[in-house]
Design brief:
Elements: E1 9-15, H1 21-36, E2 43-47, E3 52-55, H2 65-74, E4 78-81, E5 89-91, E6 95-104, H3 111-128, E7 133-135, E8 149-152, E9 159-170, E10 172-181, H4 186-199, H5 211-214, H6 220-231, E11 236-240
Parallel strand pairs: 1-2, 1-11, 3-4
Antiparallel strand pairs: 2-6, 3-5, 6-10, 7-8, 8-9, 9-10
Length: 247
């Protein structure tokens, strides 16, 4: 049986200020190392990131990578390379990053099922705030993934990607990191359009959007509240101050 967050207490840590694009990404991996050596238990870290484009390892091997990184800077986004797979994904203050870290002796065993599990959890949270959300890749999406969460517009049935997920699994623990795009999709669409063009990757810019494109007025705060309410159905939540993690 895959180990899911249905067991025990999950400590929720809300990080109010970005530590900077690179440090934020790095800190998730540090928490994973701490979970693995037993110094922290199951932890959920929530934060709104600085404007970042996280490239996958494969992207760096494309001839247009240098131009793509420059396109990010020109758009006010910091280009970074993440250790997980996938293609470039963009996020900023209007998005919510959710890092779920757990110590797990059998971390590798549940890695595949975790994608489906968390996809459904995020889709549930978005449905709670009025988004017609479902799990599954949509044609032409950026950073394609079988368990992306997308939303469907009531007007014309068009679909946009709303949540991208990535996972880092090590012996003794896992980090499941998700980005929910809630507000202000235009800069994200623009930086992805410019960087994917530089990389020579084909995609459909109409698949980039935010939850507030589907539910006008929706905020990151409202989605955060819905997410925690959804999580509370799976685990006992306890809050802890971010400062206690010693970032």
């Amino acid at each position: 049986m895959a180990h899911h967050p249905d067991s025990g207490t999950l400590t929720v840590v809300r990080q109010d200020v970005s530590l900077g694009a690179a440090r934020d990404l790095e800190f998730g991996l540090e928490l994973l190392a701490r979970a693995r050596n037993g110094s922290i238990g199951p932890t959920l870290r929530l934060y709104r990131p600085a404007p970042t484009v996280a490239f996958g390892q494969r992207d760096t091997r494309l001839p247009g990578f240098g131009a793509a990184a420059q396109a990010c800077r020109d758009n006010g986004f910091e280009p970074l390379v993440r250790r997980a797979g996938g293609r470039a994904a963009a996020y900023h203050q209007g998005t919510l990053v959710v890092d779920h870290i757990e110590p797990d002796v059998d971390a590798i065993a549940g890695s595949k099922s975790r994608f489906g599990y968390f996809g459904e959890l995020f889709a549930d949270a978005l449905r709670m705030v009025g988004v017609n959300a479902a799990v599954g890749e949509i044609p032409g999406e950026y950073c394609p993934g079988e368990f992306s969460v997308h939303g469907t517009a009531a007007t014309d049935g068009s679909r946009i990607k709303l949540v991208g997920t990535a996972q880092r699994v090590v012996a003794g623990g896992w980090l499941f990191s998700s980005v929910i795009v809630v507000e202000d999709s235009a800069p994200i669409r623009k930086v992805l359009t410019d960087s994917y063009a530089a990389l020579g990757l084909d995609w459909d810019p109409a698949t980039a959007g935010a939850a507030d494109d589907l539910v006008p007025g929706l905020t990151v705060e409202a989605v955060t509240d819905a997410l925690l309410e959804t999580y509370a159905g799976h685990a006992t939540l306890a809050s802890a101050p971010f400062g206690g993690l010693g970032a």
